[in-house]
Amino acid sequence: MLFDPKGAWEKPCGGGVTSRALKEFSFLLESSSYPKKLINRITMVSPYGRRVTLKVKEPFVIFSRKILNGMILDRAIEAGANFVKKAVSDFVRVENGWRIKTADGDSIDAKFLVGADGAASGARRKLLGIFPKEDLAVSFGFNVADEVGCTDDQGKPQEAFVSFSENLTGYIWAFPRPGVMNFGIASRLGERTTDDLRALLNRYVSDFYGGKMPDEERLEVFGAKIPVLNTKSWRSLKASGDRWALVGDAAGFVDPITGEGIFYALKSAELLSESFTGEKTPVCPSETGQQGSADAMPRSDSDVTSATDYGDVTRRYEKRWRKELGTELERASRMVTRCYHGTFLGHVFSDATIFLAKYHHGVRCVLLKAVIGEQSYVNLKRDLLRSAFRIA
Ligand SMILES: Cc1cc2nc3c(=O)[nH]c(=O)nc-3n(C[C@H](O)[C@H](O)[C@H](O)COP(=O)(O)OP(=O)(O)OC[C@H]3O[C@@H](n4cnc5c(N)ncnc54)[C@H](O)[C@@H]3O)c2cc1C
C-alpha cells in the first residue's frame, strides 16, 4: 500500500535529472506522455563572474515535479501498488508488524514499513529522530510561468544555468521546464539569513530578465529543506531496522555538494526492493512480460509472510545502500567545504575550474562529468589537476 495525501504534486524542486539517473532508470525518457525539457548546455558562472558553457553529448532532463511524481505514481499503480490518497498520521508496533493510522482516523496493519516521506519525514522523526540543523540546507525559489523560449517544447535541447556566489555553500540555478522557468537558491541552513538569500536570488532573476522582476502573477514561490548530511552523520547513518526502512530524503540520501536527490530516491527504493526479492528489479514493467514486477515480487500477502525474513532484508539493504551510494555520498560530504570555499591552483575552486574549463578541453570534460553525475568526488581534484597539466 502506498499512502500519500498529495499524489502527483508540484513538490519544491529544480526537477533536474542527471544523465546518470537517465541511464539507470531509462523509463524516465521512454514515454512522451510526460513532458520534460532536454538540456544539452549548462552555463556555469563563478563568484567573480567568469562563465563557461558546457555541452553535454547525452542531454539531461528537467521535469515539473508534478509530472515526474505522476509518472512514478502511475508506474507504481501499474506494478500493483494500492494507492491510498491519505496522510499517515501515526504508526505503532504490533505483534507482526505495524498498525498504520491515517489522518482520517482509519488504521491498517502492515508487515513492513517504508518511510519514503521526504526531508520532513514523520517516519524518520519517530524511528530515528529529525535531522540536526547541521545536516540541512535551506532552499527556495520561483517558477516563472509562460516563459518565452520555454514554451517551445519541440524536443529541442535547451540551456540550464548554475551560478556560484562568494561565501555561499550552495548555488543559484535557472532550469527551463515546459512552459516554466524554475529559479532557485540553496545554502547550508543558518549560513545566511533568509533575507540575504532572497536578495541574492531576486538580483539573479531580475538580471536574467534584463533588470526587472517578472510580474507577481507569473510567480509561484516554493521553499523546502534538503538533507545534506555531514561526514559524521554518514558514518553513523542507519536506514533500516526491525521491519522498517527509509528511502530517499527520509534516509538522508542526497548529494551534499549538489543537492541532487531524485536519483538517490529512485536508487535507494530499487535497492530496498531488491533486498526483498534478492533479484535485480526490472526497470520497465514490459521487461517482465507481464503487469509490473510481479515476477520478482511476492504475489500475495501470505507469500511475504512465509518467504521473507525481514532481518535478512534489512541487513541486505544496509549493506547495499552503503556500498552503492553511501560511500560516494560520504566522500562528497568530505569535499563540500573544499568545493565551495577551497582553492585550486591558488584561486577560489569554482572560479579556477570555470576559468580553466573555458580554455582547456580536459578540465572541461572533468567538470562536465561532475555536473552530469559521472565524476567520482574522491578523484575530482586529482583528475582536474591531471587534466589541467595535460596539454589541451
Ligand atoms: C528547492 C529544491 C530543489 C531541488 N532540486 C533538485 C534537482 O534539481 N534535482 C534533484 O535530483 N534533486 C533536487 N532536489 C532534491 C529532491 O527534491 C529530493 O531529493 C527528492 O524529491 C526526494 O524524493 P523522496 O521521494 O525521498 O521525497 P519527496 O519527493 O519529498 O516525496 C515525499 C512524499 O511523501 C509524502 N508524504 C509526506 N508526509 C507524508 C505522510 N505523513 N503520509 C503520507 N505521505 C506523506 C509527500 O506528499 C511526498 O509526495 C531539490 C530539493 C529542493 C527542496
**CATH topology label of the largest domain:** FAD/NAD(P)-binding domain
Order of helices and strands: EEHHEEHEEEEEHEEEEHEHEEHHHEEHHH
Spatial order of the strands in the main sheet? 2-4-3-11-12-13-10-14
The helicity comes to 25-40%
Report on the structure:
This protein has 392 residues and is an alpha+beta fold. It has two domains: 2-277 and 309-337, 3-Layer(bba) Sandwich (FAD/NAD(P)-binding domain), CATH 3.50.50; 342-389, no CATH class. The protein is built from twelve helices and 18 strands. It has helices at 19-24, 27-30, 65-78, 122-127, 194-208, 231-236, 262-277, 301-307, 310-341, 349-359, 361-371, 380-389; strands at residues 2-3, 16-17, 37-45, 51-62, 83-84, 88-94, 97-102, 107-110, 113-115, 136-145, 158-163, 170-177, 180-188, 219-227, 240-241, 244-246, 343-344, 347-348. It has an eight-stranded mixed beta sheet. A three-stranded antiparallel beta sheet has the order 6-7-8, with no helix packed on it. β7 and β8 (107-110) form a beta hairpin. α7 (262-277) runs antiparallel to α9, α10 (349-359) crosses α11 (361-371) and α11 runs antiparallel to α12. The protein is globular. The protein starts with a strand and ends with a helix. Residues 284-307 have low confidence and may be disordered.
